[in-house]
Amino acid sequence: MDRAKGRAVAVLHDDLMVEILSRVPVKDLCRSTCVSKPWRDLITDPLNRKKLPQTLEGFFHGGADGHHSYGHFTSLSGSGECVPPVDPSFSFLTAKLPGVERMILLDSCNGLLLFGCTREDKFGYIVCNPATEELVTVPSSSASCPPPPPLEEGYYDANDGEERFAHTFLMFDPAVSLHFHLFHIWENRTMVKVETVHSYSSETRAWTDRSSKWKRGEKGGEWGLWGKAIIQFTYGRALVNGLLHFVVSRVRKHEFLIVAVDGKGKTCRIIGWHDKHASAEATFIGQSQGHLHCISMNKQSQRSRMHYFTWLSVWVLQDYDTQEWILKHNVSTSQLFGLLSCPIIDFDIVAMHPDHNSIILVQGSNQKLVLYDMDSKELCALRSLGEDCMFIFIPYVPCFMESPFLATKD
Prior knowledge:
Strand content: 35-45%
Strand order of the largest sheet: 7-8-9-10-11
Structural class: mainly beta
Oligomer: single chain
């Protein structure tokens, strides 16, 4: 009887409670420590802590030379690279995978990282968990598929004069399943069309070609659902309700839509985004506290061939079914940076905090990575970046759960 009273819930064993709490959002988990002393002791126990949900630890990124997409880590606490949670050079990957010639860090999702790599003159992927040093290699989606470039880079084909962009997204939600998915898409910017779409499942260990389903102009084609549009790969992404969300801009109507696809690469939902301010444009989407968020800015007319903005708005899709956007926060560039207006090219949103009301962004003129807290309305510097500050930041949320779909070596 005494032992039962010492448990967080008298009728449940602590191991079962930890299993239940591992599926609770981080914010609710923190609140649960106030329920009782047994609950607090259970949650803060070092043996249990790694089994429970983690929050955003920081960002992997390249160096000031801009030649690598990783190798450095910036902590969200502002401690820089003093105590990185894992080796940011990922030496365990090259030790376990001899012959890897080049790696590009492409994406992250809930503790897993996605690399594109060249190995034995063949392009492929590495999906790994740096916290457990587990990994699995994934072949390219087709024999003719070249390596996708890093974000904001494209391929220009001199033979046909066309420019193509590609990106591969990683989808993983350990609260739902230990399986992961990859979603790979090639877009022809010159012709304004999607050329190839492939999806990969760790369950089947195979790629599925969905290109024919995305052909614009064909009856029932998924690309035709939103018409002539360009995918905005640099506008963020969000995994909400098990679906991957990304932004497309419709060319003729000059409006933004958010497209949601499942792990099989099927378009499941198209969400309209309409800011009440006609001059505002969608700039970034992300997931925070279980909801889809969209950040917009008012785009001013050109001055000296540059666009400026004077404020940012943060909107939340509180009700996913009604698709009603609710204004969450407004902040002016005067409050944010002490400037009446800011050049758009001098500003880059990196991420929304998944558990707190804060935004992580880069301001080029100050060459710093900063965090803006919407609750306190304060700006906190995280890191000085140097002259080449516009490199890619990949968010990292540790996951200490071992997976049967990853291995300690390939």
